[in-house]
Amino acid sequence: MPAQGGLHLNTIPCLISSRERGTIVHTTTATTPQSEKISRFAWRTVDIVITAVLGVASGLIFWVWDQVYGPLSVALAATPGLEGLTSGGWLFAGVLAGIIVRRPGAAIFASLVAGVVESLIGTQWGFTNLPIALLQGLGAEIGIAAFAYASSKLYVAVVAALLAGVANIAICVPLYYAGVTMDVIAVYAVSTLISAVVIAGLLSWLVARGLVKTGALARLAIVTGA
Questions:
Q1: pLDDT of res. 18
Q2: 41: helix, coil or strand?
Q3: If you write DSSP's letter for every residue of 98-112 in order, what string do you get?
Q4: Is the distance from CB of 161 to CB of 203 less than 8 angstroms?
Q5: Residue 165 contacts by C-beta under 8 Å, 6 or more apart in sequence?
Q6: CA atoms of 34 and 4, how far apart (whole Å)
Q7: Three-class SS of residue 25?
Q8: Which residues of 87-103 are buried (b: 16+ CB within 10 A; e: fewer)?
Q9: Could you read off the pLDDT of 111-147 as tens digits, one per residue?
Q10: With contact defined as beta carbons under 8 Å apart, do 172 and 86 qualify?
């Protein structure tokens, strides 16, 4: 089978005259790989459906994480600010959808859907989660956009997770840490970024690779490259 994107040589017998009978005329036709026909910036129905499904699934996990947060935060209370280690449990939605679907807005879309689902089920923070989810998704979006939506490699997931963590710090510090000392904020910020890298970055990437192996993402950019 010719390599995609190469030139096919089609042989056509040419019976122009008795002298030229049997002469072989070669023609060349350029072919375009199927994946190149689909812009990586164009949304398809499958992209919308999968992003929504990932958002809903993430929202359910968010809600479970809400229940876990209480006892975890108590266990971490000995060091004020260390509860930032739990942050990654709310940062992964945008990263996961972003590296799987790789379409502009996928990270924001999935993060917002997750926040809505979490709030509808019921959480101690209510719908105040939504602007936080928006900013977290925006952070992840910027990280994936920095690589032109062209890669699902681990370093892309880590960068997206780090920026989601930065966005989380930017909105949560004034909301929940106003008036606390700078050392507590520093502990919270560092622990949030560590959690972002491990849970939202590395774990999201591992989950995405696992889903690829099941064949469930066969039509998505993480597999097709388009």
A1: 43
A2: coil
A3: HHHH--TTHHHHHHH
A4: no
A5: 87, 88, 91, 139, 192, 193, 195, 196, 197, 200
A6: 8
A7: strand
A8: bbbbbbbbbbbbbbbbb
A9: 999 999 999 998 878 888 899 999 999 999 999 999 9
A10: no
Residue-range domains of the chain with CATH:
1-31 (no CATH), 40-224 (1.10.1760)
Answer for the pair 149, 103: CB distance below 8 angstroms, yes or no. Answer: yes
Residue 4, pLDDT score = 43
* Strand residue runs (E) in the chain: 7-14, 23-30
For residue 32, give Cα distances in angstroms to 38, 42, 106, 223: 11, 18, 27, 18
Asked whether 85 and 188 are in contact (CB, 8 A), the reply is: no
CA separation for the pair 88, 197 (Å, rounded)? 8
Return d(Cα 144, Cα 82) in angstroms, integer.
Answer: 28
- For residue 100, give both structure tokens: 């799987």
- Is residue 161 a contact partner of residue 197, using CB atoms and an 8 Å limit? yes
pTM of the model: 0.79
**Which tokens belong to 78?**
């000995």
At residue 78, φ and ψ (nearest 5 deg) are -60, -25
Residue 63 CB neighbour total at 10 angstroms: 17
Tokens, residue 63: 């809600």
Residue whose pair of structure tokens reads 């809903």 in the numeric block? 56
Q: Which two tokens stand for residue 214?
A: 């099941």
